[in-house]
Fold each of these.
Amino acid sequence: MQITEIIRKKRDGESLSEAELNFFVDGFTGGKIPDYQASALLMAIFINRLSVDETFWLLQAMLNSGEVVDLSMIPGIKVDKHSTGGVGDKTSLILAPVCAAAGVPVPMISGRGLGHSGGTLDKLESIPGFRVDLDLDHYKRLVGESGLCLIGQTKEIAPADKKIYALRDVTHTVENKSLISASIMSKKLAEGIDALVLDVKTGQGAFMKTQDDAKELAEMMISIGTKMGKQVRALITDMNQPLGSHVGNALEVVEVVELLQGNCTPEQQDCLELSLLLAAHMIVLGGKADDLDQAREIAESTIRDLSAFAKFKEIVAKQFGDPSALEDLNKLPTADHVETLTAETDGYLGMLDALAIGKGCVLLGAGRKTLEDVIDPAVGVIVRKKLGNPVTTGDPLLEIHYNDANKLKEALPLFQSAIKIDPDPVEPPSLIKK
């Protein structure tokens, strides 16, 4: 086979065979196919799409590029959650300790920021000392001991996805249902889970802009997971505005700590609500509750009695982080400067564009524009008003935390364009779509 012929076929809208997709995955993972040819094929796939069969073959090739972890020696039903990517979405850092505190083992292998959306690993690494690069033996031990482990892909776990994921991030080939499905499910099926809850985002700040696209993506991943013998549930949720109040790596850890300690501002209510709902589905799948109402009460109780916060501190310590930084938030990275955008008129917040805010945060340094970019964990935005809130002239709307004045100058027009104030009342979007 020749990679140039495979690129041509997909460029011209033809279907690829299982053998051709295996050839691409094996060749790119092994270094025989260079980035520029892999990028060409990814763009051809992005434009001309993959069929359901092609998507399944790509998933299998990526899954089989590494090791599939066996966690059968650990008691309990192992359940994980995955989000398709959003702005301010720190639910993994909330629901993972909640579920572990409720007795549901959560083996979580996460990714880094992708495009304008944040990454769980980047957020965790803003905690001083926290390591996401643990080996699989360490991973298995922590899931057994603590019911929880939060790591990145090891060299054994879907190495093809790790390379393809990084390339998609910097070649604008992210928003494709087949590539998203194969990427997510190859990691999740390799990590040793029995069940999976998916949070499929839709709206301005999501990769799936319409609810129909989000539903199609959810159905594709459920079909793949079921075919592989896993229980899979999906929620379609709103991403027209940032989730919660904090956007940016260390800033999002601050919000996680506040919520796990039982402190929730009105701007953070949607983040807490979604975290508890996703956790409830995980607790039901994990066999610790008979229905969502019972599971929701269990999840809420772990926040009330601070057992979820204790679990978060425990896993931070066991992954070589400094748990005292969760008690004294001043130990987390902090930006040198804050610029506040205020309301220029009275009215109601009618637009808080998550995509523009996410892109602005990338320009500040909270995300990557190239593979070589280094994350600045301190920068980001704090949202002071949410959609539908009444505002008065001079009210703070966005607090921009930055370290580089030139980067602020570049990002400021995006933040300004994200906000619109309407004279008449605005109905906020529903959080759960389906």
Amino acid sequence: MNENDLPVHPPIVFIHGLWLHASSWEPWVELFASRGYTASAPGWPGDGATVEATRNAPEALNDVGIEAIYNHYAGIIGQSETKPVVIGHSFGGLIAQELLANGLAAAAIAIDAAPIKGVTALPFAELRTALPVLVNPANRHKTVSLTAKHFHYSFGNTLTEAESNALHERWTIPGPGRPLFEDATANFTKDSPAAVDTHKAVRGPLLLTAGTKDHTVPELATWQAYMLYADNQDSVTEHHLFDGKGHSLTIDSGWQDVATVALDWLESKGF
């Protein structure tokens, strides 16, 4: 086989979620590169270049909301000659769906994505995860950090305390409270930034995934999002469950299993 026979893949853009730094995607970038993809993981507007830099200047993320995050990635993607595949985790998964619906991406994978407008499920675990931020209205305009204990409940509940604490120390950064407030009120807000055209958008394929043990985005929320797309007959939407996985599934010791599912799905769709 010569180089002209090799498959040409679209670029991959990884989008991190709340409280994780973009560098947490580094193992994914390396794995995708080994499979012939060019991948990048730009941070949110206000993120520092490193975990330490972001922790040292958290005020740069104050009041950064969903619209600002979306516009930031739309601007990055708009500079690409080829539409990328976007892969997002948590709030990154919500942004990935918006980019896809608006025609800026060729395909998207939303991993345990934050609920889009129309999702009504609010299990106790999800409420307990967000409550420390939402309980104080002033946090809407501030940047909030997760303690190791809260991270263990919200992200690392399927892990030992030692592994969860190590991930917290390595990858977590302060996160803006505004996206949580915007998402919590999405169903009561006419022009919510968490709204996605699930019904009429003609777009590339979308994979929605959920961890069955996720406390931050319980699988019911992902299933409801999937059902919102059910009447869109012009576009492909698929659903995948990761049995026994929590919200840390993109960064914990089982991350490669999740990444392999993503790679296999992309290749099955011709990407």
Amino acid sequence: MANITDFNASELSELIHQRQVSCVEVIRSYLVRIEKLNPHYNAIVNLAPEEMLMAQARQCDEELARGQSRGWLHGIPQAIKDTGHALGFPSTLGSRVLASNMPRADSIMTDRMKAAGAIVVGKTNMPELGLGSHTFNELFGATSNAWDLSVSAGGSSGGAAVAVAQHLLPVADGSDFMGSLRNPAGWNHIFGMRPSQGRVPFGPGADVWADQLGTEGPMARSVRDLALLLATQSGHDALQPLSINGVLDVSGLQYTPEALRGLRVGWLGDLGGHLAIEDGILRICEDALHTMQNAGALVEPMAMGYDAQALWDCWLVWRRALVGPKVAALLPLPRASELLKPEAMWEYENSLTLSYMDFQKASERRTSFYHHLLKVFEKVDVLALPVAQVWPFPIEQRWPQQIGTRSMDTYHRWMECTIYATLAGLPAISLPAGFHPHKPWPMGIQLISKPQSDLALLQIAASYESVRQELLHHRPPEPA
């Protein structure tokens, strides 16, 4: 048998339930690999004591011996992104201000994954407060890319992406506000999906009405695992009144090219020059689209047909309106104003100048854009964009200040390509697209689909996976 950590989560689940491997063997194998590789990557933080995890694994084995299974994740290790709560682990959000912040309950998503059998072994690293698409903070340090230790893993779900890519975890959860599931997935050669807004109840948080831009979701090395984890995470919860009813039934997904035949793809590229994008990224994405074309997809370059600068201005208002109060809630804590990262304080200070009229106008702009996209989706089934505008950059760099000859006017302008699915609340998936022509750096392409069409998007991804097996079999090197 191959090494236990070589198996995807769904394969491992079958082996466990067939009693071909024990939960104790699974947890031990992953802990050995984490001990070996995590010091190089810094993907998993606040790892639980080994004896505690082994005791949980033994309990899982005893339950199976009695014919009892908690679910498909029975005895499978999981580390929760540090935005989420897991009992017994600090919820730090990568901030020194919250280093000892112990939750009183699991978050909704953590509770569901535990109910399906997952054993929580630790947390995954993230940028402080999830701000910026580069996983570094003053509490735990930076997370290195799974393919090159010298460059960024992306973010904010960077620790999760690297842990999955380097087989420190079979699957992982993440969250996505501005591409935080999509960008690190693309940069680490795995799948990451931002589900429809409300598909996965996020929280509970301080506000359950207006705060509807961020969402949790799955990351995996295969579409089957991605779909199974999303199904586990999904479904209405009364604590989140705007969450979507119904659990996704992913049992009918077909892992054949069939869904690509006749699929209408609108290729947005760089939005007619609006997006600054580093050399080589568009070509890699077009190669991925060409593969889809060869399988029968109809790919057409198209314009988004909406004022992109107006959308960026709308985004800035919404982001400041949602981030500012979260930072404000931390400021009464000891030394918070001096310990919080400058980008967090910048968001807070800008939020103080917003009026209700500013927010209402931005909400109307967002509504107008959503209605516009409904008409666009009468002509195409999915929209395609690069998942990032730059290649992974040096790990010491806070954020890219320039793309080509164009300066970035904010710390997140280089991730502008991710705001469209977020603003419209649409499902979007990051698919591995290829690699830099001269470096070992991966790149992804994102597909955005119609409202609440998560299952259809997963089917498209499953079909894409079936025609890109040679690319997907590439595995990152391990440090010497």
